[in-house]
# Entry
Amino acid sequence: GGGGGDDDGRLYVAGPNIVGVPALAALEKEARGALEGALSAAEQRALSRVGLWVGVDGQETPLHFDCASNLLCVLRGRKTVALAPPQAYPHLYPHPWQSCGGEDMEGEVYRFSEVDIDAVDAARHPRALSRVTMEVAELAAGDALFIPLGWWHHVVSHAEEGDGGAGGPCVALNAFWHAPRDTWDRPAHRKRAPSR
# Structure
């Protein structure tokens, strides 16, 4: 995990894993407590990470998919999440292995789409408009959204509304847990190289 900034100087704390970090033990305990009602005991034991996300109004996470199931929980503010199923893979123009030397900070550029879903370039990405329908979920503080592994998602943070002005940042937790290997062998999760 880590943090990053936009060109306009806004800071975004992006998903540092809080599991097993002594200084964040109280936050991890609270997060696991909040997840108890949503996850079975076996799923809780299988948690691979609990990420913390803190962003300002309008902060975006580009369209991508994760290789683990994810439960996104909004603590403050709101989030807008646009989703597409794994079958959309060939139509969402995943970055080729060659871009950025084949690596992002996790070594997996292919999990990110070249498509800007706010301004789709129909000439460069025609299938994104003609073959993919995004479902949109609006989440408020206290809401949670399950995002199955392989599902594409684009996330926009909205600041907490304050009295007469800007409120605090949007704060969320997400719990990731790895699926059994046979899950990736199902047809819905098999990745095919898209034709350009």
